[in-house]
């Protein structure tokens, strides 16, 4: 789990870096701490406004965030957790599913109001 999160995070950082020519950007903040119990914490920031941080416990759990300005000027803020339920990103820029159609909502309401009567078979 941790390896997947780390790889996704690094690929994300590479994509952001290649998106614009910011070759003069410098690292303004860097912290990295690994404890004997397997927990860790890292954080960095750059002069062009990229900020990222993550904390977790070995390969069992990770939580973090990434913030940067997209090439179109939109401020991107992504928060995520990775645990036994998988990778769960959250951010206003992420796509969302379309609303449930009205006819589906009506059908679900009908099914709920008219439960199926179970048939008892003879043994």
Structure commentary:
There is one protein chain. The protein is of the alpha+beta class and 123 residues long. Helix content is 24%, strand content 37%. The model has no long low-confidence stretch (mean pLDDT 86). A six-stranded antiparallel sheet has the order 1-2-3-4-5-6, covered by helices on one side. This is Pupal cuticle protein Edg-78E. InterPro entries: CHIT_BIND_RR_consensus, Cuticle_Struct_Prot, Insect_cuticle.
List keywords for this structure.
about 120 residues; alpha+beta; six-stranded antiparallel beta sheet; 6 strands
Can you list the strand order of the major beta sheet? 1-2-3-4-5-6
First-last Cα distance:
49 Å
Element string (H = helix, E = strand): HEEEEEEH
Radius of gyration, in Å, reads 22 Å
Give the structural class: alpha+beta
Name the beta content range: 35-45%
Outline type: elongated
What would the average pLDDT be, to the nearest integer? 86
Work out the helix count.
2
Approximate helicity band: 10-25%
The main pleated sheet reads as:
6 strands, antiparallel
Uncertain segments of ≥5 residues (pLDDT<50)?
none
Total strand segments: 6
Briefly characterize the structure.
It comes from Drosophila madeirensis. The protein is α+β, with helices and mostly antiparallel strands. Helices cover 24% and strands 37% of the residues.
